[in-house]
Amino acid sequence: MTAPKSASATAKRQRKIQKRIDAKPPAKKAAKSTPVQAGPRKQPQNPLPAQHLRKPGLEADLRLPPRYLAEDYRGSGKLEGMAAIVTGGDSGIGRAVAVLFAREGADIAVLYLSEHEDAEQTRRDVEHEGRRCLLISGDVRDSAFCRKAAAQVKREFGRIDVLVNNAAFQLHAERIEDITDEHLQETLQTNIGGYFHMARAVVPLMERGASIVNNGSETGLFGSKHLLDYSATKGAIHAFTKALAGNLLERGIRVNCVAPGPVWTPLNPADRPAAEVAKFGQDSAMGRPAQPEEISPAFVFLASPVTAAYVNGIVLPVMGGPHG
Known about the structure:
Layout lengths: L4 H18 L60 E5 L4 H12 L3 E6 L3 H13 L4 E5 L5 H15 L4 E4 L15 H22 L8 E5 L3 H4 L5 H21 L5 E7 L13 H4 L14 H12 L1 H4 L6 E4 L6
Parallel strand pairs: 1-2, 1-4, 2-3, 4-5, 5-6, 6-7
Helix pairs in contact: 2-3, 2-9, 4-5, 5-7
């Protein structure tokens, strides 16, 4: 069968284009690019301190302190007169969020496990912003603790406007067989069980206009071969966010999620061997890990009814660029 003239002409044109591309010499492999700095000040990059921490990991023990104060961020009353709960608020992203929420006018309840030194530093930072800070030590895996903590915050502050679910457990494992039942349950019950317990405890104490912001992860979007259980919980958090957003919509309570890429917090030095910690984040789009202060403004945006009143059920990637 003879091809129509138009088809033959198209094939000839395509071969001509191909010939021109084929004649080009192979491109030289690009040298590894310098880590990207796109903010108002230069952030630390690799190599990071080759340091391994004992769990749960103290920010006070890190040789390179994470940057969380966001000194260039100016508050404008986006959370004025509100009260917020931040789980895992003693360090890392949680601490950075607590500081910015306070700068935007909110009183803060910091729920944390047992890192008292870190929690006290967060309290000082929040009070420096002119807001009240309540520290509550306990385990979000325990639903009774979550109920008691929520009730305590309501008594102390008279209201609960924002819940930030952030507390997490993470531990790399080379093979699925290396993840014991104990390990699996620790991850599941902390990362998704704790989020569920806290939301269930807090929602009855919230009014219309309140919001929940969950901390997800790029691993919940793309997976991570050595974080099988952690990736599963982060994917569950993303689904939980969307489902709860629909469930609470008629009550006027918004639910959203931030999905960060690699961030310099105690979580990772308390997870990986020291040599791997030194290279942490170098494979990200920007070639370096984020600092907590580069992630926290996204939580402000989603929490505030001023900026996100019509934003509900989203998973907001804050990963420095496209994955891969």
